[in-house]
Design brief:
3 strands, mainly alpha
Length: 92
């Protein structure tokens, strides 16, 4: 195993462990708003994932109904997405 691969594995394990620990303590919500997903992963990516059916928004109940996304599903799709490595259209 190369050093670069080991670094990537450790980074992913650390991120997953941190997320799991925060969720178990109640410090991390199960769902995130669409706006928060836009800030974290970019509007184009989130909208594409929704249109492709990879994630499905659900409405919250209350005075201000808003669209929410399952945090775990969004993070899983974001981790498996390799489009961040693609060149912009101008550079192709």
């Amino acid at each position: 195993m190369k050093l670069k691969e080991l670094v990537i594995l450790l980074k992913n394990a650390t991120a997953m462990g941190t997320t799991k620990a925060l969720a178990e303590c109640g410090q991390l919500a199960d769902q995130i708003s669409k706006a928060e997903a836009y800030r974290l992963y970019g509007r184009g990516s989130v909208d594409r994932w929704i249109s492709e059916g990879l994630i499905k928004p659900s409405a919250t109940i209350g005075k201000n109904p808003s669209k929410c996304l399952d945090r775990e599903k969004v993070e899983a799709v974001a981790a498996s997405s390799n489009r961040k490595t693609y060149l912009p259209v101008a550079e192709r």
